[in-house]
Specification:
Blueprint lengths: L6 H14 L3 H9 L2 H7 L6 H14 L5 H4 L2 H11 L4 H14 L2 H10 L13
Length: about 130
């Protein structure tokens, strides 16, 4: 569902994955079947719920083995940008992601990549 053109299907698909991925067998299946790239792509959705579910899913899927695939400079930079959002749901969840899953060095490197504003990120409309 994450590759569909219909944003409703993507939103419900990522929501379902978010709900299922805490199950160990589902987590292993998602990680072993290339699901991370599809989930990361959902971070650029124009739908608030899709993005929030994608961030939450990435946090749930972060393990010792998957950490290097999830905590990449583009994802960390995206979370830095979300943390600056006026949308409290985005900023709070992104701050938790940065504090709990990233090192200070990773966050600083992401901040230094460019001048961060929320401009250029397709944040959902309120």
């Amino acid at each position: 569902m994450l590759t569909e053109d219909n944003e409703n299907l993507v939103e419900f698909g990522i929501g379902g994955i978010c709900n299922l991925c805490l199950d160990k067998s589902m987590k292993n299946h998602i990680l072993s079947s290339g699901g991370l790239s599809l989930i990361i792509n959902c971070l650029s959705s124009c739908r608030e719920e899709t993005v929030l579910s994608a961030i939450t899913t990435l946090m749930y899927l972060c393990t010792t083995a998957s950490r290097a695939e999830i905590i990449t400079p583009p994802v960390v930079e995206c979370m830095v940008r979300f943390s600056l959002s006026d949308n409290r749901r985005f900023s709070n969840l992104a701050k938790i992601f940065l504090e709990d899953y990233c090192t200070e060095q990773q966050v600083e490197e992401a901040r230094s990549l460019s001048q961060h504003t929320v401009l250029g990120i397709p944040l959902p409309k309120d």
